[in-house]
Amino acid sequence: MATPGHTRPLLATPGHLACRRIGHSLYWRHGQPVRAGTGLEGVEKREHVPQGGWGDTMADTETTARAAAVLRTQRIETPSWGYGNSGTRFKVFPQEGVPRTPYEKIDDAATVHRFTGITPTVSLHIPWDAVEDYGLLAKYAVDRGVALGVINANTFQDDDYRLGSVTNPAPGVRRKAIDHLLECVDILDATGSHDLKLWFADGTNYPGQDSIRARQDRLAEALQETYDRLGDHQRLLLEYKFFEPAFYHTDVPDWGTSYAHCLQLGDKAQVVIDTGHHAPGTNIEFIVAFLLRAGKLGAFDFNSRFYADDDLMVGSADPFQLFRIMYEIVQGGALGPDAGIAFMLDQCHNIEAKIPAVIRSVMNVQEATAKALMVDVSALSAAQQRGDVLAANAALMDGFNTDVRPLLADLRADMGLDPDPVAAYGRSGYAEKIRAERVGGDAAGWGA
Ligand code: RM4
Ligand code: MN
Fold first, then answer.
1. CB of 32 closer than 8 Å to CB of 41
2. How many other CB atoms are found less than 10 A from the CB of residue 426?
3. Which of 41, 43, 256, 360 reaches 20 to 30 Å from 345, CA-CA?
4. 227 with 269: CB under 8 angstroms?
């Protein structure tokens, strides 16, 4: 993926961040960091290094510096639909100031990037983001400091798709769905994006409704035709989801099904893990480790869930799970842009303001990643080798329990960003501006 807007050099040397003061001071009271300028008296002043946390020893300082260098290279893609209106199964709740066009969605994505510094791409959903000229849309994005990323095909909203899209028993409907997938590859060509992401709402509600096996054949045929149309540098990313909207069986219900189809297709086909698309209790980090090892992990759709596909802000329901996932990513060497994994958000902000919710999600992923990077891997692996279960678990938990917020605040300051992106966005006046400007027209949302 192209990543414009990242012209600042990476940290030149490990230790850079730990060895100099950046922008602001932190004070410590009762082991907790407190910002300077709060009129504190008698508190100890330290060089942004928490007690018992990162930076207390030379080894910790090095770990912190390494973590900062890696975090600086982290990239997260935001979804165009995350900026539009959305709702529950029962109602869409409109908000003032939401975008009315794909261009306005890009404006919002560029705004998020301005405050986070690590979200330089935005994924599109077709036809929600259909425009006449995709080359112009791509240029519009670049002019605003972002680029178009993954293209999502939508074969789940036309009346024809009631019984499925690419697995529909009617050949004419299948043809229509496949033609849409091929059109999305044309869009990749026009935008310069690399990835086509496919999620199918296909499945059945009743035993006997259709042949499960025939539907697998139809799916394989549709994927093959689409795969054959890909250019050398393009990928097909296949997402799975265990249920909904179909309730008896789903045609791509799990990572195993997606993996098997991707294996059959070839190197340019990889699996998408949407963190909300599993049965409760599923060990997602196992799936991450397995797919990474097999070279078949292509992308993430990050979000949080308490029950089903809740699409809440990532890291809100289970930050520990997010940490465990990011730990596998870090251990698999898969965090950097070179690893070719698209780290995307796929969320649906119903009751919260959209732009700050996206910013918060990005920060949550950053925090989970920073904690994963703070794990003392040599202590952990030594404990594993000697079969010391408690010590191994403690080494991992030490990473999770590290307060990485000061590290991230310093990193942001070093990148020329506000240490608190949500607050900075709130002060920026952008929310008031879009509320005043985006009056009239049709607000974007599900189906628009
Ligand atoms: C689906 C799936 C897809 C997303 C749509 C909007 O549940 O997660 O990734 O594009 O929702
Ligand atoms: Mn998804």
1. no
2. 16
3. 256
4. yes
Q: What is the pTM of this model?
A: 0.88
What is the three-class DSSP state of 67?
helix
Which ligand has the minimum distance to the alpha carbon of residue 309? 1
Residue to probe by mutation, ligand 1, list 88, 199, 250, most atoms within 8 Å of CB: 199
Nearest alpha carbon, ligand 1 atom 2: 199
Distance separating the N- and C-terminal Cα atoms of the chain: 26
Burial state string for 240-277 with b = 16 or more CB within 10 A and e = fewer than 16: bbbeeebeebbbbbbbebbbebbeebeebbbbbbbbbb
Mutate which of 92, 152, 165 for ligand 1? The one with the most ligand atoms within 8 Å of its CB, which is 152
As a whole number of angstroms, the distance between CA 104 and CA 110 comes to 10
Sign of CA dihedral 306, 307, 308, 311: negative
Residue 61 confidence (pLDDT): 85
Give the mean pLDDT of 343-365. Answer: 96
Q: Is the pLDDT of residue 9 over 90?
A: no
Going from the Cα of 8 to the center of ligand 1, the distance in angstroms, rounded, reads 33
Q: Are the C-beta atoms of residues 235 and 299 closer than 8 Å to each other?
A: no
CA 123–ligand 2 middle distance (angstroms): 11
> Strand runs (DSSP E) across 161-302, as ranges?
195-198, 203-204, 235-239, 249-250, 269-274, 297-302
Ligand 1 pocket, 346 CB below 6 A?
yes
Instruction: Note the pLDDT of residue 58.
Output: 63
Query: Which residues are CB-neighbours of 70 under 8 A, at least 6 positions away?
Result: 330, 335, 336, 369, 373
